[in-house]
């Protein structure tokens, strides 16, 4: 029987065309030779036809295999491509999942479930081959280019290793468990390296440190993106340094490694990489961690720059650096909050302790007045950080402190910041108190020319003005260290008995002002001209009151009463100046002694005008070189002189001018018109010599 030229097997031998037909034909031949079966002639003929057909098909199959091999070789096809009758990886994965599900089902019998050895072996072969593909080669593992989904496959290997351990007493299960464990270990090495390399995929990379993973070493470290410039309209929320797809892969790898018992390796890689990144961010801001010895010996100008850099770096860490690391850790270890919390808190603790070395070194440097304001900046920075640290270590994370040493470390960090802040406060207070000693030590014996404002007055008042801008901080510092006064040996109870004893800083400020006033009183005695000493006291007194009125903080600390009293002192200096300078001049313009029996004593009148002219010229010559820098005070002095002296001269001249003959006699004794006198008064206190031009 033939169909399309090919013999067709009879129904009796049709099953021979399936798998194993050659063996069945041999069995039929044996049975015939033994006489177990008998065939009709036509059946023998059909059997011969079947044998011939099998032989032809086998030959065709061998030829086809050779052609397939040649074709695959010519096209460069992978020799590992499974045969058509082999199950694909998806099918293998499905069968493995079914087997694993059967192991996790409630036990239906005491018998050990049958293990599909061939399926598991084939599955593990494929996974192992895929993992080994990345060994000892430069090729990076890119999930998008994988022939199979590797991470889910590694997850199945992990489950195989875990679930088969229950029946490890069974040889077949032990074999599967050991095989899966070996492949899992190989897979973890791949994931470790990929985890680190992903962490390096940061926009900014530096090459100072490396982490070794056995197979490869990468000499790179990742860095945080640079801080954005303030005022650019950018959000204060720190943005993560990786795109979302990389963070997703980091999450998957971390979850797989932790599930496989490789949490230590995973956390170590993440910790080292991100610590390096954090340190790089500080370096990018210019902070190079100078040693304590270098800081102690450093001159003030470079040290001032170092302090400004440290403050910038510390604020960056608190407001951007640490929050960024916290958010990143929470994203990567989103299924393991305890791990992300421990990493973040360890990072904060270690980084802050390193950063605190800088202010500790500042505490060791020599106190000097110019350091006060930078010390106060450091103090305020540390004070602000305490609130931020509280948010980094919430109370719920500190529960169980007795059992968890990390909780005590967190509390130690807070106390360490408070301790360093206290030391800085102590230094700031000592520097401020040193201002008293500076005032006492200023005992210069040379008077300031022209009675101008003394440099000590300018220095102290400007210093206090800027210091009072830190009013709240200095009040806090002085309250914290109120038990010791600035000069215990000389005035142990003076500050405490002051009416401002409830505000030690205000009391100290009053003490400084009293010392300054006493010093100025001593310096005023250096002038031989008493009038000039009053000008000196007026100048300095007015400068002090104007500086105080120009600072709300200083006004609030000294109080209105103190300011009124000081203004009254300036008015008294003004009165004393007028009495000392112009009283003798006014005596020349009195009517007393000029009239005898109703007639004017002309010789006495002439002497009065001569004395007035001489005195006024002398005063004008001297006091035009004197200095009154405050325009309002200068105007007040001139107005008061004109109101008293010029007005008296106007009256005296108008009454007695007619007793002189017109011409030379009048010009000889009456040298100044009222207008001349007013003009010459306006030339006083300009700080430059002025000559009197006599009228013709």
From TrEMBL:
Residues 1-87, 217-241 are annotated as: Disordered. InterPro entries: Cullin_repeat-like_dom_sf, Exo70, Exo70_C. Residues 309-682 form the Exocyst complex subunit Exo70 C-terminal domain. GO terms for cellular component: exocyst. Residues 20-30, 40-55 have a biased composition (Basic and acidic residues). GO terms for molecular function: phosphatidylinositol-4,5-bisphosphate binding. It comes from the Eukaryota. One of its GO terms (biological process) is exocytosis. The keyword Translocase does not apply. Keywords: Exocytosis, Protein transport, Transport. Residues 56-69 have a biased composition (Acidic residues). Belongs to the EXO70 family. Component of the exocyst complex. This is Exocyst subunit Exo70 family protein. It comes from Rhynchospora tenuis.
